[in-house]
């Protein structure tokens, strides 16, 4: 077992001051073999977590030291590139300390090498510059007016697709066996499981995603992970923990259904259903019904966190939120989930 955490060679963009805006790592590795780390020492790696910018000479030296590995082929392809190239070696999963390190961790998630919460992302926001993501690549916001004018002077349009700290995932990684109807709605750092369909209304933040086959037409907030076979209905919401109070980590178990416009502020266990339009927060008072429909007790939704086989609904005449045993857990439509 390797004692190192990750090794990756990337090519990226810097601003006029030589500061990194973003890095693309085509083949990041988890638990790299000793031969990769030994080769890194040839270009100045001296231990710990380091991002080393490689000039033409260093790229050739690294390619030679890497021998016949796949990574060697990657560096060779970049030897004569005018773009900045970086070698990032992480000895351990410490909080990231540079933009290339932060980008590597986001890549590890989207390449499905680590699951949400499987990598330390503490302090990542200041390391991700706010960037104009354009049809001509990443541009520093301070340099944008000049670049727009340069493009116009050549009769071209520089189109700004978004202004954000995170780029869209699919410009970096397209994982196997997925459909993503609107690629701008999935950020780099999302983990999209094999067999997932994300419709236009679906959204997936970084450090969040789906374990496997799923239908996503709602929003998966940062930190939320959705179990295999679950369906997030149109416009539904999963509560994140980045802002505004709650510190419960939200997750959805296997074979759950969040109805259209529903929402959850508690984690759901396996085979749970939330009626469309019902938002359950941790403090929501819930009437527990027995099999004959009688109210047994009233408890707070947080006490039901992670419990399986529950159906939540808002009584349509009384307005009370109720919880029953879920007798009909969903089955995903097989035809919708064939991705070949
Ligand atoms: C909550 C939900 C799952 C219930 O569906 P269901 O289990 O099929 O239940 P039914 O509609 O057959 O109703 C069963 C009984 O409960 C009653 N009932 C259902 N919802 C109720 C409510 N909110 N309040 C009071 N009674 C309700 C029905 O009137 C019916 O009563 P009956 O036995 O006297 O005839 C469903 O309404 C729902 O919201 N599904 C989400 C679908 C969705 O949004 N999918 C995503 C698409 S993008």
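Q: What amino acid sequence fits the structure above?
A:
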């Amino acid at each position: 077992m390797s004692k190192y955490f990750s090794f990756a060679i990337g090519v990226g963009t810097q601003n006029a001051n030589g500061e990194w805006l973003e890095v693309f790592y085509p083949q990041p590795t988890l638990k790299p073999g000793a031969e990769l780390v030994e080769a890194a020492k040839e270009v100045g790696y001296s231990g710990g977590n380091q991002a080393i910018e490689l000039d033409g000479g260093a790229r050739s030296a690294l390619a030679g030291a890497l021998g016949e590995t796949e990574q060697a082929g990657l560096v060779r392809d970049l030897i004569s590139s005018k773009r900045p190239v970086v070698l990032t070696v992480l000895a351990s999963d410490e909080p990231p300390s540079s933009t290339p390190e932060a980008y590597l961790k986001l890549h590890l998630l989207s390449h499905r090498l680590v699951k949400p919460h499987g990598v330390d992302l503490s302090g990542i926001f200041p390391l991700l510059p706010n960037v104009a993501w354009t049809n001509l690549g990443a541009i520093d916001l301070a340099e944008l007016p000049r670049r727009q004018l340069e493009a116009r002077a050549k009769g071209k349009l520089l189109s700004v697709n978004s202004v954000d700290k995170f780029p869209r995932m699919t410009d970096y990684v397209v994982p196997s066996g997925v459909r993503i109807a609107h690629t701008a709605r999935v950020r780099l750092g999302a983990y999209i499981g094999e067999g997932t369909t994300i419709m236009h209304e679906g959204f997936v933040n970084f450090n969040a995603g789906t374990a496997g086959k799923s239908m996503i037409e709602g929003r998966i907030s940062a930190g939320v992970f959705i179990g295999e076979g679950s369906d997030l209905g149109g416009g539904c919401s999963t509560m994140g923990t980045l802002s505004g109070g709650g510190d419960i980590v939200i997750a959805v178990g296997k074979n759950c259904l969040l109805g259209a416009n529903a929402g959850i502020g508690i984690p759901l266990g396996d085979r749970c259903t939330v009626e469309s339009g019902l938002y359950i927060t941790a403090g929501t008072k819930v009437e527990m019904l027995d099999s004959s429909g009688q109210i047994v007790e009233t408890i707070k939704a947080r006490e039901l966190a992670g419990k399986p086989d529950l159906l939540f609904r808002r009584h349509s005449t009384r307005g009370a939120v109720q919880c029953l045993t879920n007798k009909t857990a969903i089955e995903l439509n097989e035809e919708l989930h064939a991705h070949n």
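Q: And what stands out in the fold?
A: Residues 126 and 329 are 42 Å apart (CA to CA).
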